[in-house]
Backbone:
């Protein structure tokens, strides 16, 4: 079976202006969202206590919230988590009470109301640790970006490195933008997913770049845009099938992996879609506009060859 | 052109064989077991303990499927969890409170695998349930405590040297001394410099007043902090031992933090209480008069202690009657080290007391020469006499030596108890992650199911889309799974839920290399090349692309590992290893299969791709 047997190159570059425009629009929109609404940072980063409780029957979130408020925990956030019998309770950091006491007291209060409620998970992160996790995450993002730019600049050319970086930044901003728009919980595992998207997106872009480089060396075509179109058409089958198979795995995780992996899988699902788009339609136009040409990839002629007469 | 030399096939088969063997233990599952560990880390784990466990099981009529000895304790396996619980109760009663008897799960993999070092991966807390704590040691408090100690020491020193000062006080982490004139200050400075080289001294003069500020030097500060952390680690270890956790993790993290992981612990409240508890140490006088009378001792042993006294047992079982008045508490002890008595060369423990403790101790010892004093450790609401030595002479200066121990082992033991009884600096829980056991079981099931179903879907798609080559890709992807699991098992990595996610993601991405190769081969065929040439060119041309794209992902994985913590790390490890194994399986293993299938036919006309 073959779905992508294309006789003629698809003129991707003709639409470069619109695809880049769309990307820039989404990036700006994402940045605007991040600046105004911000990310709904989870307890991993803000510090605080998160408790998952299992109830024997469907739990009434409102009555649980009221019960907690009556007992002095008015600042508790209560929501269903995955199923109607699972409840997630979140509490901000409280001065003067240690985490150890806080989660136990809350469990005791919840058990007054429903003795069969079972504590399934507690996550407490102190405010200081939360801040460090956030810093480390940001640092990881920076280090990965620099590492990848350096590698691509060495293996390819600086314009390619910048093109790949722009495409990747595009993916990350859009994923973060979506997270900000829906105010989903941004946890440590979502951050890991964002970094994995970074790796995946660059991986995808590099495959296309590799073909462009090969075309530069092989063909005598001088029209850079045509060379790029040819490379992208040749790799289109691979691009779509790989993102498809990765998406199958990620969707399985999203649908069957349970609540703990849900955010992680959701970020990857979105990231793979935008990553595939950007590696075909965003990365190479940037490289073209930065003024790459065939000469950049031809080996410099050997200097001593002229001496032979 | 599509043939591998024999050695390459042998290499591949060998790699797969090793991978298979090391993956195998993960599939055998667990058997219920009971683990017996001595409560004190200084107590011996030897064949004697093994025999005691075997004997205890026999008397209780509980049949075990195997009892074994390892450096940490004795492990006994059982057929089912009912027997396991019965055995636990029987062993706890038989061995008494100086041993921890914990429920555990042991790998059911056969002996020959274990003896080859093929062990299953450990399951992380999120898969088996348990508690994870990150504790922060309050280092400024440790330095303040040190300053307090030096304040007392300096006061004693200056009195001995007859240096006159007008005031001494602690200000945060430093000690400030005031003098009336420069000569006294100089004398003090000389004396302190000589006695305490760890202190940094700064002079100042305001009007008529001469001041000297003593502070720990940078190096000494670091040493003090390291010492505080080490002591807290030891204390925590002892406390965790009491909890009866089968495989606890207690590790230093960074310069001032300690990670405690207690798998399988369900009563988190109790765990927190025990970790946060302060064991107390007390020094009290032995009531010698009443000890003279055998009748009183007997009555005391039966629970009838005379007024104003209490009866406790020494570690050898001897009863001791001690007065209720507490002479000193463990707070005054700054350090305890095992060593030898200078004159008799007997095993001894050297204790350092702080300034106030030293003064009290001096007075008490002066008044009680020839009598015995008891050092009591109160832990878990239980009091034990660590040792009850005879006072030979007045002891000043805060340096106390206890002899009368049977061996250096016992001296070590006592020093550890004295040191570990209390925390060097207070600690606070700054991170906690508790996973209930039912959630752990859910997590592992869901994680595994989603990976398997995803894998099956990818496999079906690949076979439909690439036919025979798709089958080869699926087979090479399966070898990738084995290689990855084998590497993780060899490293004895801890498998966590994000780790499973990492495996799933690398599987999705690992198929990429196969797709790149397949698309290349198709392209070469389309261009009119012969099938054999297309196969060869497909693999060769694809290699560069595979390398470039994987290295960029690897960079991301390494950074994640480097900067990530906890859950992120598990993901990063599987991602990085998965990339490496996928490069081997997608290129070498799949090529070998292609070569075996097509390589020998000279007039190959069609490739199923």
Residues:
């Amino acid at each position: 079976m073959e779905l992508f047997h294309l006789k003629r190159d698809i003129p991707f570059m003709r639409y470069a202006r619109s695809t880049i425009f769309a990307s820039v629009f989404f990036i700006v929109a994402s940045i605007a969202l991040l600046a105004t609404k911000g990310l709904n940072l989870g307890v991993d980063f803000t510090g605080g206590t998160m408790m998952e409780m299992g109830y024997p029957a469907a739990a009434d979130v409102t009555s649980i919230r009221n019960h907690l408020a009556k007992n002095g925990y008015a600042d508790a956030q209560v929501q269903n988590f995955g199923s109607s019998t699972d409840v997630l309770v979140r509490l901000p950091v409280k001065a003067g009470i240690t985490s150890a006491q806080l989660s136990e007291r809350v469990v005791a209060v919840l058990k007054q109301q429903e003795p069969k409620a079972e504590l399934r998970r507690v996550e407490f992160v102190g405010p200081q640790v939360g801040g460090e996790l956030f810093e480390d995450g940001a640092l990881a993002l920076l280090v990965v970006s620099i590492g990848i730019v350096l590698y691509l600049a060495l293996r390819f050319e600086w314009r390619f490195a910048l093109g790949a970086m722009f495409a990747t930044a595009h993916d990350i901003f859009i994923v973060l933008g979506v997270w900000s728009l829906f105010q989903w919980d941004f946890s440590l595992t979502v951050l890991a997913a964002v970094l994995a998207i970074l790796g995946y997106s660059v991986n995808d872009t590099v495959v296309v770049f590799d073909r462009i480089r090969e075309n530069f060396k092989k063909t005598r075509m001088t029209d850079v845009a045509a060379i790029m179109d040819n490379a992208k058409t040749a790799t289109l089958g691979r691009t779509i099938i790989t993102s498809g198979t990765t998406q199958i795995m990620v969707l399985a995780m999203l649908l069957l992996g349970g609540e703990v992996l849900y955010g992680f899988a959701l970020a990857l699902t979105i990231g793979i879609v935008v990553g595939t788009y950007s590696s075909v339609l965003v990365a190479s136009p940037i490289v073209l506009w930065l003024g790459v040409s065939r000469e950049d990839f031809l080996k410099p002629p050997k200097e001593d060859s002229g001496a032979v007469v | 052109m599509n043939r591998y030399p024999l050695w390459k096939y042998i290499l591949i088969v060998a790699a797969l064989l090793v991978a298979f063997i090391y993956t195998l233990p993960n599939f055998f599952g667990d058997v219920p077991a009971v683990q017996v560990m001595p409560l004190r880390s200084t107590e011996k784990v030897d064949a004697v303990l093994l025999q005691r466990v075997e004997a205890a099981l026999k008397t209780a009529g509980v049949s075990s499927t195997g009892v074994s000895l390892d450096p940490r304790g004795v492990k006994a396996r059982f057929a089912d969890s009912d027997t396991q619980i019965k055995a636990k109760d029987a062993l706890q009663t038989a061995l008494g409170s100086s041993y921890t008897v914990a429920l555990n799960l042991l790998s059911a993999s056969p002996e020959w695998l274990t003896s080859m070092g093929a062990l299953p991966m450990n399951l992380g807390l999120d898969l088996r349930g348990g508690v994870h704590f990150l504790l922060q040691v309050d280092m400024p408090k440790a330095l303040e405590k040190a300053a307090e100690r030096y304040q007392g020491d300096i006061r004693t020193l200056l009195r001995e040297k007859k240096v006159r000062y007008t005031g001494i006080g602690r200000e945060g982490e430093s000690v400030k001394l005031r003098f009336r004139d420069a000569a006294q200050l100089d004398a003090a400075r000389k004396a302190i410099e000589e006695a305490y080289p760890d202190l940094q001294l700064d002079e100042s003069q305001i009007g008529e007043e001469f001041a000297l500020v003593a502070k720990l030097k940078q190096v000494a500060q670091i040493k003090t902090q390291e010492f505080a952390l080490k002591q807290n680690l030891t204390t925590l270890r002892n406390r965790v031992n009491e909890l009866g956790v089968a495989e606890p993790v207690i590790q230093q993290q960074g310069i001032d933090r300690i990670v405690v992981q207690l798998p399988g612990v369900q009563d988190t409240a109790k765990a927190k209480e025990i970790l946060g508890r302060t064991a107390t140490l007390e020094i009290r006088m032995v009531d010698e008069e009443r000890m003279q009378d055998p009748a009183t001792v007997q009555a005391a042993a039966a629970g009838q202690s005379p007024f104003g006294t209490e009866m406790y047992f020494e570690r050898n079982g001897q009863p001791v009657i001690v007065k209720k008045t507490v002479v000193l508490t463990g707070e005054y002890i700054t350090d305890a080290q095992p060593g030898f008595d200078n004159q008799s060369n007997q095993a001894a423990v050297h204790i350092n007391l702080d300034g106030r403790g030293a003064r009290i101790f001096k007075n008490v010892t002066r008044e009680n020469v020839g009598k015995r004093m008891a050092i009591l450790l109160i832990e878990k609401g239980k009091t034990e006499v660590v040792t009850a030595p005879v006072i030979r002479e007045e002891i000043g200066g805060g340096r106390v030596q206890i002899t009368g121990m049977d061996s250096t082992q016992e001296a070590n033991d006592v020093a550890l108890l004295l040191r570990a009884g209390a925390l060097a600096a207070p600690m606070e829980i700054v991170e906690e992650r508790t996973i209930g056991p039912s959630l752990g079981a859910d997590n592992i099931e869901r994680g595994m199911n989603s990976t398997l179903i995803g894998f099956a879907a990818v496999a079906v798609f690949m076979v439909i889309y690439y036919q025979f080559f798709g089958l080869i890709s699926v087979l090479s992807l399966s070898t990738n799974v084995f290689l990855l699991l084998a590497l993780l098992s060899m490293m004895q990595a801890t498998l966590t839920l994000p780790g499973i996610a990492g495996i799933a993601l690398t599987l999705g991405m690992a198929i990429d290399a196969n797709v790149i190769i397949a698309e290349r081969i198709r392209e070469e065929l389309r261009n009119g090349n012969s099938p054999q040439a297309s196969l060869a060119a497909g693999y060769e041309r694809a290699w560069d692309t595979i390398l470039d794209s994987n290295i960029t992902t690897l960079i991301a994985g390494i950074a994640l590992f480097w900067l990530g913590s906890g859950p992120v790390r598990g993901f990063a490890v599987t991602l990085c290893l998965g990339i490496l194994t996928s490069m081997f399986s997608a290129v070498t293993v799949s090529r070998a299969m292609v070569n075996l299938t097509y390589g020998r036919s000279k007039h190959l006309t069609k490739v199923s791709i």
Notes: Residues 346 and 596 of chain B are 75 Å apart (CA to CA). Residues 437-490 of chain B form the longest helix (54 residues). The two ends of chain B are 19 Å apart (CA to CA).
